[in-house]
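Running this now, will post back.
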Amino acid sequence: MTERDDPKAALRHYLRATRDDLVWKLDGLDERAVRLPRTATGNNLLGLLKHCLNVEAGYFGPTFGREFPTPGELVPLQAYDEDPQADWYAREDETKDGLIDLYRRVGEFADQTIVQLPLDAPGRVSWWRPGHQDVTLHQIIIHVTCDLARHAGHADILREQHDAAVGWRRETPLVLDAQDWPTYVAKLTTLADRFA
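Update: finished.
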């Protein structure tokens, strides 16, 4: 059976690819560059990664009765009472390399949940509102993949704002190398200005 014939393998493939895409956006950047806020709400590349690793640890851990082997490395739920943004930035004692390593270990932990349980395995998301807390593994894989894809898209934009590095995937960037980007941007600006 190939990955195309196995729904669980296909779902896992896209989750892992999205996870890898997010990590790739931090390549070659120093600690300051990955921490620097790039939006009015403070979004930064390392914060996106930290948020996503905590999302995966929660959804593929407690939701299915599992605990990450080193829970002290994650943001505990009670931390959000004091700081609702606790998982959106790296503390001073956390490093880019350390959080990437933690994310890889969280990814292995999430993959174990996916491999060990059937797609219809029941779970419970305690932080969702009552009446919506009961889930299946299938639902959670899709939910987490969509969440990670959204944040990988954020990372695409943040990275492009930093140093104009673009690309969809490391192996297939899908970016026109010969494109004259300044001319293209000027063309779009002129078009937009017609509506001013």
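The radius of gyration is 19 Å. More later if anyone needs it.
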